[in-house]
Records
---
Amino acid sequence: MVSNIHTHTHYCDGGKPPRDYVLAAIESKLTSLGFSVHAPVPFDCNWAIPQNRLNEYFEEISNLKAEFKPQIEIYVGAEIDYFPDIVGYTNNLIKSYPFDYFIGSLHFIDKYEDCRRWTIDGPHEEFKKGFSEVFGNDAIMVTRKFFEYSRKMIQDLNPPVIGHLDKLKMQYRPDCFIPEDHPVFKEELLKTLEVISLTECIVEINTRGIYKKRGDTFYPGAWAFHEMSKLGIKVMVNSDAHLPHELVNEFDNAFSALRIAGIKEHYILKGNQFIPVPITN
Ligand SMILES: [Zn+2]
Ligand SMILES: [Zn+2]
């Protein structure tokens, strides 16, 4: 049994309407499919759904849920950003809408002098701008801050699933930033895994970086799977699909890497709950 609950449609920065993902998920024999629109944020952001479209989003996914019930379980969720300075806004958003689940993810850290927020998830040129202007090109400081915010997010939002735990590494170039095997990067990721191990939070193994060719590792990288295995951390595999044909990209490789690391089960959303399923391949 396999599911994918990290998907983006044309309601945010994905490329197709939700129905196309449902049809592709049935074709791929997924047990369940979750829609995780980028939740609204209280500033200009061209990849998040505007708040005034959320009702339409819920209505469309609810209709698909009913229509395809005999074939596949469909869930309506969101990928929610974390900002330490507006936790009230975010918690209110989570409480105000009937999300079946949400994924907590970090895409921004800190602000420019003019108060615009700096994203670590945009084009490399944009990363370089904030890296220089906000952090004076201090890779260690950025790394520590990114993971510190990830740990704060776990505490403040208590997300059922944490998305692309070390996505920051996609900005590494030989002449910019640090790679995932840098001692500080590893230390911070491990510290974050330890915090996660004390919670019920599921760590997503996100395959998007590989099939988008932003690197050759998952978020988080396979080296961390051994540590996750030791810490007894729950995992689930998602592709962060922005198009229907990306729904199960790199899933087989993710499951083999998990199995090799000694992780025997992954979690899927089924019957409105996250349940463990043996990894068989
Ligand atoms: Zn994301
Ligand atoms: Zn996403």
---
Amino acid sequence: MKSLFLFCRPGFEDACAAEVSAHAGRLQLPGWCRARPGDGFVLFTSHAEDGGVCLYNRLALDELVFARQWFVVLAELGALQPADRIGPLLASLDALPEPVRGFWMETPDSNEGKSLSTLAHKLEHPLRRALADAGRLADGSPLWLHCCLLGGDHLVVGYACHHNSAPWPGGIPRLKMPRSAPSRSTLKLEEALLRLFGDAVDRYLPPGGRAVDLGAAPGGWTWQLVRRHQFVTAVDNGPMDAALLDSGQVEHRREDGFRFRPRQPVDWMVCDMVERPVRIAALAAEWMTRGWCRHTLFNLKLPMKKRRAEVERCLALIETRLTKTGIRYRLFAKQLYHDREEITVALIRPPP
Ligand SMILES: C[S@@+](CC[C@H](N)C(=O)[O-])C[C@H]1O[C@@H](n2cnc3c(N)ncnc32)[C@H](O)[C@@H]1O
């Protein structure tokens, strides 16, 4: 198994390809990438026969910033006949190491991918039946089958382990915009919390916690925190949503987010200010090293061309500053589905 299939945001294929190639080089598993702008995916192929699976086993999806989801490629199937797409797919599963717990019919997050979603949906039922009949399904299996449609007659099939993949097809969570949330940005924080903590979110955001939201207006992120019973200091010169202020859980401070200091340490500092990424990274590092917050989650906006280089610069700055103070933390950096020209970064310490 030579190849890995990586889903990314359309327009970020070059960053995704450069990133996976850099890790492959570091792990002495070099290869090349098929990465066309706008495709919404990258296909990495190793020079070694088993290079794809070796790379998958030695790299975590969470180490990749620009890949939302990925899988080890078993086969790329072309010239599929409309009358029987499932037969060749099933025949390509001989190299599958063991039965799978389930499968996803996926499409890239591109315009072409969206036009294939009805077909993908139609193929789900016959594929489930065919997998069951062939004895390829097993409840306790750690493996998940991925079938990504690239055209009506073209698909890539492969597998991933559930502990080294995103919990959603294509890495895309289908979240509903909450009616009372004041901005769509709310979905960015909701996705980040789901992706980071899943069902364990209460351990990291126990009710009654204290948070600071820098660049909070109109309040989409604050809304997520209030919903989880946090007391929030919302820092922004812009107006906050009136209903949020009426909740009694939000104090609005019309101040500069770079100058604001909390009166006492808080559990969380979140920040969605539109600023140069390196300034935001330095601010987050300062909040952590000075002990003003226990955890932080922020967006780095990436309107520039050299996005990957900018991200690396910011992450290196954070690592240098936090390492100096000996703080133990987990760094998570990912371009999530609800992120646009930006990525989400979190610095998480063990819950108290
Ligand atoms: C993308 S919006 C935040 C949206 C917010 N997260 C939400 O969910 O509704 C960016 C906000 O950052 C604020 N901002 C930018 N620079 C700031 C600064 N230096 N201090 C405080 N707020 C700032 C802007 O006023 C704007 O409201």
